[in-house]
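Q: Entry one of two.
A:
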Amino acid sequence: MSKDKTPRALPLDRCLAKSNNLRISPQKLNLVAQSIRGLKVDKALAELQFSHKRISGDVRKCLQSAIANAENNHNLDIDSLVVEQAFVGKGLVMKRMHTRGRGRSSRILKPFSNLTIIVRQTEGAA
C-alpha cells in the first residue's frame, strides 16, 4: 500500500513557482518583485521585459514558469491570472577576502536570494 497524497498547500485557484539561489542581494531583488505585485500577468511580463535591472530576466523566467504551471498543471485560464504575491527570501552568502594595504584584508559578501511568485485566477473567469 502506498502513502496518501500530500494535500495541496495552496487553494485550487492559485499556483506558484520558485527560483532559488539567484545571485543578487534580497534588497535589490525585492525592488523588482515589488514592481510586479498585484499586476495582471501580461502587464507584469511587459514591465519585466522593459526593466533596466539585471535580474529582471530571471524574475521574468520565474513568472513564465508560474503561468505555465497554472495552465498545464491546474487548468487555469492564463488571461485572467494576477500576480498575487511575489516575495523574496535570503539565501546563502559567499564570503571572499579582498587584500588591502599594509598586509590587511577585508571581507566581501556575495549574497544569494530566493524568489517565490504566486499567481491567482481572478473571480471573473473562475
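Q: Entry two of two.
A:
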Amino acid sequence: MKTEKVEVPLSSSYRLLHPRLTVLVSCVDKAGKANVITLAWSMPVSINPPIVAISIAPKRYSHQLIEETKEFVINIPTMDIVQETLFCGRRSGRSYDKFKETRLTTLPAKLVKPPIIKECVAHLECKLEEQITVGDHTLFIGRVLTAYTNKGIFDEKFDVKQVKTVYHMGGDDFVTLAPEIFSPQLQEQ
C-alpha cells in the first residue's frame, strides 16, 4: 500500500467518508401526500433516548415537508431496489410522484403520518426534535419513536448473508457489504 499523501479538493473531501449507508426517507405534505428522498447523510446521535440525524439541502422538496410536518421515516433499502433508490435521489417530489414512478409500495407507519416503504427491510419512525442549519444543509434531528425490521434478518445487527444494504460511493455508484464479519480481539497487555 502506497503511503505518499496527496491533497484532495475540499469540495470532494466529504467523499473520504464514503461509502455511506443509503436510506430512503419518507415524509408527507400537510395534506398527507407522501414523498421520498434518497440520502447517504444519516447517522445515530444518541442511544438513550434513541435519536438520529439526517442532512438535507434546503432546496430539496423533502426539506420543506419535514420542516412543515415535523415527522419522517428512515427506511433501509437493499440492493434489490437500488434502481428505485437512485431514481428517488435524482428526481424531485415537486415534479414527480416517486412512489408511482418507481412502484414502491407505501404502507401506514405505526406512530407517524409518513408511510413506511414495504420493499425496505427496516424502518425508524421519527418525530423532529430540532433542526440546525449547518453550512449549505439542514441537520434534522429526530427522536426514534419505534423501529422494526423484516423478521429473521436482524438480531442486534443485520445478517449480511441475507441483507444486502446499499452504500453510496458518490455520483450514481453504489456498493454493498461482502458477507464477511471480522471481529478482531484485543490482546491483553
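A: Comment on entry two: The chain has one domain: 20-175. The first strand starts at residue 20 and ends at 21.
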